[in-house]
Amino acid sequence: MKTKNKLISILSNIDIIVAGVMLVILIVLTFAGVIWRRFFNAPFTWMEEVQLACLVWIVFGAGGAAFRTGNHVAIEMVVDLMPKKLQKFMTIFISIIVVAVIGYLFKQSLGFVELFIKSLRATSILNIPFWLIYGIAPISYILMIISYFYALVYNVESEVKEAINE
């Protein structure tokens, strides 16, 4: 039972794990690149390509987690000033808009990834296929929608809003 719970915990936080690992890789490689360039006068020519890939995976990897924990960018002040019934309507209206926008971005990202696969484009130095770098985008958009509804169902509030309500 404990193993099953641990597996579920890992799977439900895989986006945070991926973003965290990529952040560590980005920091370590950037630090090593500065040291090599400054002290050994031998810069890593491939560093920018890896940094770009890490940054893309950090942003898209953490996107779903931001929705799931309620820490995404949101302007709630206007909605909070409305009567309760209107707040519920606005929540539904905003949810429809959010899902529509993320759905649109998902569709567009599929097109980009498909284009990268067909064109066989890759980075110039390491030859990393662009579909591998940007392939996280459609996956992330699906996780964002799932996480958004998770936050709605379980009434997850941002840490800032929780602190204000205390």
Automatic annotation (TrEMBL):
GO biological process per UniProt: C4-dicarboxylate transport
Location (main, coarse): membrane
GO cellular component, as recorded: plasma membrane
Domain Tripartite ATP-independent periplasmic transporters DctQ component: 26-155
Pfam families linked to this entry: DctQ (PF04290)
Membrane topology type: Multi-pass membrane protein
Family classification: Belongs to the TRAP transporter small permease family.
Name of protein: Tripartite ATP-independent periplasmic transporters DctQ component domain-containing protein
Organism: Peptoanaerobacter stomatis
